[in-house]
Amino acid sequence: QICLSLVKLLFYLAHSPLGSIALLDFQPRQFVMVDGNLKVTDMDDASTEELSCKEDNDCTLDFPTKSFPLKCSMAGKCEGINEKKNLFNAYRYFFTYLLPHSAPPALRPLLSDILNATGDLRYGINETLRAFEKVLHLYKSGLYLQKRPLLLKDYISLKGFRTVEGEGHKCWPSYSHLGCLLSIHSAEEAAAICNSQLHCHSFIVTQHRTWTGRPLASFQSSWTDLVPDTNAVVYIKRSASSGERL
């Protein structure tokens, strides 16, 4: 969410009515999340000036660990230097820390491609935004899910109930540090996640949703009492339950 919001912001800056705008003091502390969108807190160090040049050798974009040769345009300006400066800063301050984590395994190669392409400046902002939107579409639609055996049949479902939260079954990544709370595309995906966790024996699908509209599921590892909850469905492994208990 943070990286996609940042890319949309940089896309706007690259195509602004004032021309391509560079953020000269590009640091994480210069940004804030407002209603799920990343915004710049200080535009004092923004610039629409692009480096003047006479030849390509005048257009080297330098960073502490990398340098990139750019083209000198017919207008005597270093082509795309503001856009590329913003994009590489997004790569080194945001993408490298956020993209490798938390995504479903099937989507990680696509995020790795974005990471590598922006780190080498092979992608411009247009290509980067398209790549992010493709990943988001796959994530929201569930198209990233590979065909696998149907596992939900191995669970008993009880609508209108949830289990009382038991002791710390924790997992990574989790929306709650107190337990294992993950976003899912469907109950079938939740069953596959539960089966992949050594101690998981049940999960609850709630009405709570993430910014992408995906429901949240809480995974449990210990038996707890069932309590009424009209907004939840609890799924219990058949091997972990008994008719007498239910």
UniProtKB/TrEMBL annotation:
GO terms for molecular function: non-membrane spanning protein tyrosine kinase activity. GO terms for biological process: skeletal system development. The keyword Signal applies. The keyword Cell cycle does not apply. GO terms for cellular component: extracellular region. Transmembrane segments: none annotated. Keywords: Kinase, Signal, Transferase. Residues 2-116 form the FAM69 protein-kinase domain. It holds the Pfam family PIP49_C. The lineage of its organism: Eukaryota, Metazoa, Chordata, Craniata, Vertebrata. This is PKDCC kinase. It comes from the Eukaryota. Residues 1-22 form the signal peptide.
